[in-house]
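Hi all, posting the design record for the shared folder.

TITLE: backbone redesign
STEP: 1 of 1
STRUCTURE INPUT:
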């Protein structure tokens, strides 16, 4: 347990020094955050944060992958996204002091660091550079959301499939030359839910990618065989 705690602190220390959210914080502030941070571990499929909760602390993903969506009354999770980037994942809801929009579940073993919310806000308010970095980051995320919304409303289904496959490759891919192995296992049902189509509709349209030798999809494992062609399909022009 002691070694695990050391490893957790080292991971958090690296994130505090490299992540865009914290780059504007002074060294002293990062040391203070590191001192008061706590650490939690979650098992596969365990609920980490529940939608409709108002979370008063800052949650950082240190290790593992999160599955994000809505847990329905029948017990099924409707997938909206996956998170594997080691950063704060509840920043908007925390700053707004509003309930979370989604349920967050662990995929495999997951490690989280929790920073006291009042400490984070205190350091943020005292450092204009830190505040500016956070504003820039939130602006970038908003711009990306607008771009995604535009794409969804203008692209055809083949392009949307290519777009989401490319996003998975960027976020979770182990890419070598022109091929890419997606680092998380996703069923076709889960993938279809990412952009609101039925599994049957997805399966029908996936045949194009399979026949063109752009994609292999076997036992929830996705391998992109031709990244250049996939990205060409994403292009709206």
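Okay, here is what came back for every position:
SEQUENCE:
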């Amino acid at each position: 347990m002691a070694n695990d705690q050391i490893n957790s602190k080292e991971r958090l220390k690296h994130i505090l020094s490299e992540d865009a959210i914290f780059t504007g914080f002074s060294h002293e502030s990062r040391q203070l955050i590191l001192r008061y941070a706590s650490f939690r571990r979650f098992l596969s499929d365990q609920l980490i944060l529940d939608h409709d909760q108002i979370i008063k602390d800052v949650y950082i993903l240190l290790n593992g992958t999160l599955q994000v969506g809505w847990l329905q009354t029948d017990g099924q999770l409707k997938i909206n996204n996956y998170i594997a980037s080691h950063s704060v994942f509840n920043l908007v809801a925390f700053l707004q002091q509003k309930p979370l929009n989604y349920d967050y579940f662990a995929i495999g073993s997951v490690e989280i660091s929790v920073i006291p919310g009042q400490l984070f806000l205190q350091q943020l308010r005292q450092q204009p550079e830190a505040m500016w970095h956070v504003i820039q980051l939130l602006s970038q995320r908003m711009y990306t959301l607008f771009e995604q919304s535009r794409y969804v409303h203008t692209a055809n289904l083949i392009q949307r499939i290519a777009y989401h496959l490319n996003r998975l490759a960027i976020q979770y891919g182990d890419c070598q030359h022109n091929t890419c192995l997606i680092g998380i296992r996703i069923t076709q049902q889960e993938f279809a839910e990412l952009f609101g189509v039925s599994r049957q509709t997805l399966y029908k349209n996936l045949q194009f990618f399979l026949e063109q030798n752009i994609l292999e999809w076997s036992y929830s494992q996705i391998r992109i065989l031709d990244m250049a062609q996939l990205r060409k399909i994403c292009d709206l022009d």
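COMMENT: The radius of gyration is 19 Å.
Let me know if anyone wants the other runs.
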